[in-house]
Amino acid sequence: MKKILNILLLALVVGMASCASDVDDIFDKSSAQRAKQTLKEDMEILASAKNGWNLVMKADPEDEIGFGAYNLFIKFNEDGSVDVSSELGESDKIVNSHSHFRCDQSQGIILSFDEYNEFIHFFSDPANPMGLGQKGQGLKGDIEFSILKATKEEVILKGKKSGIKLRMTPVAEDRTWQQEIDSIKSVYHNMGRYTSYELKLPNKEESIILLREYRTLYYENENGETERIPYVITKEGIEFLENANIAGYNISGFEFQNGATSFYAKGNKEIKLTARVLPIVTIFENGNWFFAVSGMSATVANTFKTSAYYLNTYFDFLNVVYSYLNYNSKDKCFVNTMNCGGYLGKIQFNYNAIDGENVEFGYSGVDEKGKPTHSVDANGAVFYNYGFTLFAQILNDTFTLVPDDIVDPQTITFVSKEDPSIYFTVYKKTITDPLNN
């Protein structure tokens, strides 16, 4: 019996030695050494793309703004510098923004853009150049990313703050960044700049209307709920960030058809998306449009400034921060919304769309106490009584709408039918300081 126990004990010792040897073979480096090796490999992969990477950049985690996704082009250099360009650049010519990046080990490999870069930080700045998002939050994007996967074919990043997953793929070596951006902008101009589309599905009699804002499509589902589909524009067309199920059909995007206004779903030509050119009045009614003194004729500008002056005279803590027009479809009117020193007020106007390019505004006057009868809140009544009356009166007119672009206008100029020397321009982009713009 003792002999048997000795044999078993010997076998156990040999087995343990064998297991220890196996463990040593697998973990022949310390955790610190393995982390250092992974960091080195990831850095080498980032720098390996000779023509840089195409990063599909998305922020706005909850899609509250509907900004969608945009293309960035990034070249990581061995000296820690980085060159970045973007389709968001206003110039037709390629613009590179040069800055710095670093990779560190911290619960995985973290890629940080630790020096300001106009294209990267556009998505994370609390106040981006387009004025998107809530004050102090912007698009809620990232400048630090966990590297989840890194190969020479693709790099998967995860925003450290937002949790959004992003994908980078190498840019073909026979293509310049200028060619890539030109192709994307060409697809946008011919396919992606329409503000409304008609979606025709097989065996469905009625089409579905899709509306666009930035790089997001909106439609009403069968339950009357608004669905949103963020997308990115590629050389091939519109690519959804996630496959969308629309009325039972799984759609990943639409392919660009050169010179056409109808586009087919990827892999299914029975599903067709057709662009709709809307009347300028309809486009106007579907958005918020901001004022700027620089876009007003002398008469209108002087009236606006005088209104602001009176507001500031009566209430030294008030001044115009922004002022914009917003259509109220329920009451069939327009509301001029003002933010004066942090106090938000709305003044409601009668509104009549005469046809596709002419509208009529009219403020409804005041009651026996001198308050405007259609002011929708108390602050609006205060603004009206103490200064804004003058500007409200000059809006009491019939105007012809003149857009800068009939498909996707960024500005619309209102020209008085009675006196063409009276006009003002409203802007799609957010203008937070109309008196100094």
Q: What's the tally of helices? A: 6
The helix fraction, in percent, is 10-25%
> What does the average pLDDT come to?
85
Biggest sheet overview:
9 strands, antiparallel
Low-confidence stretches: 7-26
How many domains? 3
Q: Output the radius of gyration.
A: 29 Å
Ends apart, CA distance between termini:
99 Å
Overall geometry comes to globular
How many strands appear in the DSSP assignment? 25
Biggest sheet, spatial arrangement of strands: 4-3-2-1-9-8-7-6-5
Strand percent estimate: 35-45%
Structural class: alpha+beta
Model description:
The protein is an alpha+beta fold and 437 residues long. It folds into three domains: 35-174, Lipocalin (Beta Barrel), CATH 2.40.128.370; 181-276, Lipocalin, CATH 2.40.128; 281-436, no CATH class. Helices cover 23% and strands 37% of the residues. The protein is built from six helices and 25 strands. It has helices spanning 2-26, 31-48, 177-192, 280-285, 298-314, 378-394; strands at 53-58, 69-76, 81-86, 97-100, 102-105, 109-112, 144-150, 155-159, 165-170, 196-200, 208-213, 216-220, 226-233, 237-246, 249-255, 262-265, 268-276, 288-296, 320-328, 333-340, 343-353, 358-362, 398-403, 411-416, 423-427. The strands form three sheets. The protein has a nine-stranded antiparallel β-sheet with strand order 4-3-2-1-9-8-7-6-5. Helix 5 runs antiparallel to helix 6 (378-394). The longest helix is centred in the N-terminal third of the chain and has 25 residues, at 2-26. It is globular, with a radius of gyration of 29 Å. Mean pLDDT is 85; it is low at 7-26.
